[in-house]
Amino acid sequence: MTTSTTARTVLFDETGGPEVLRVHDLRLPAPGPGEVQLKVEALGLNRAEALLRSGAYYYPPTLPGSRNGYEAAGVVEAVGGGVTDLAPGDPVLVAADFHLSTHGVYADRVVLPETVVVRRPAAVHPVTAAAAWLTYSTAYGALQVVAGMRPGDHVLITGASSGVGTAAIQVVRRAGAVPIATTRTEVKRQRLLDLGAAHVVVTDGEKDVAKESRRLTSGRGVEIVLDAIGGPGFQELGGAVAPGGTLVSYGWLDLRPTVLPMNWPLTVHGYANLAAFPTPEDRRRAAGYLFSGLADGSLRPEIAEVFDGLDRMPEAHRLMESNTHTGKIVVRP
Ligand SMILES: NC(=O)c1ccc[n+]([C@@H]2O[C@H](COP(=O)([O-])OP(=O)(O)OC[C@H]3O[C@@H](n4cnc5c(N)ncnc54)[C@H](OP(=O)(O)O)[C@@H]3O)[C@@H](O)[C@H]2O)c1
Fold it and tell me: Is 3.30.590.10 the CATH number for 5-132+301-332?
């Protein structure tokens, strides 16, 4: 198999709008010990990357020349010394666990530590694989591992049209629990129902989420809330939770300070996916969960749009920030 030493790579030199993302030809060093070189077939976009680009992520980008991108699917082209679990030709996905500025995968070729690369079944299409790891591992880690979701639980998913939200609807269904989805726009209601939401609460100023959640659970409240939004609305979510229930905060789409609900007893978790699967054993279990779900059809990544060409990355970021999409945005380099 031939390897190239050039990689078309998306970089940005300053924080700002999508237009700061530009494609450069970079020399790619051969993989060193413990590293693998991948030919990238598809990139899955995440809100975190728009936040990094604009300077609003929880850490700042390293400028100039910051890389970006957590998720990719591709094929191994070359391996460095000591790599024995992966070989050229293996289909893989990138299980994000790195600093975006130094290891971001928006490129047609990347060199990464073998520890962030997971072999994928050949039957899993690259577009599906690029859209799967971060969303499903976040929903699985937050709901199953941290919140201990059980069959029959009611689970309120805020920002449910997001990549993680659409995955969470399926993860809740797979556990025999009941997903209640929120969106700000009526336009997305039917799609969320089609994806498996048992109920959709449209929040654009009309509906009180806490009141609706209690109405849908005969006054009891939901056992778990999975919240992507934070901000002052977080406090109101406390009113949606049954006594002793669990609120998992994993996103901060509302950039205002988050207010803690005080209707105790209540458990609040701050969930970080990058820290959720620290050992190879944890990662093996998350991969087992994902690939079995993709194989039996209970997990089906919702793809909002596929863009062809790294040059279209600014367009893809613009779509993400328009919030008109449902599910994952994918770019094929
Ligand atoms: N902690 C972790 O480990 C972890 C892992 C993955 C993602 N995240 C975080 O999770 C969040 C979602 O990420 P994603 O990539 O799945 O998002 P995404 O696909 O970009 O979708 C975001 C959706 O949320 C809604 N939304 C956007 N801004 C909002 C606001 N200010 N208030 C209320 N709703 C808003 C919109 O849906 P509607 O218009 O339908 O309301 C939008 O379509 C981000 O904050 C991301 O950083 C955290």
Answer: no
Cα–Cα distance, 261 to 241 (Å, whole number): 10
Nearest atom in ligand 1 to 57's CA: 47
Judge if the beta carbon of residue 50 lies within 6 A of ligand 1: no
> 135-274: which CATH architecture?
3-Layer(aba) Sandwich (3.40)
First-last CA distance in the chain: 20
**161, exposed or middle or buried, with CB in 10 Å at 0-12, 13-18, 19+?**
buried
232 neighbors 250 (Cβ within 8 angstroms): no
Region for 315 from its dihedrals, namely left if φ exceeds 0, alpha if ψ lies in -120 to 50, beta otherwise:
alpha
Query: What's this model's pTM, rounded to 2 decimal places?
Result: 0.95
pLDDT, one tens digit per residue, over 160-214 is: 999 999 999 999 999 999 999 999 999 999 999 999 999 999 998 667 999 999 9
225 CA distance to ligand 1 middle (Å): 15
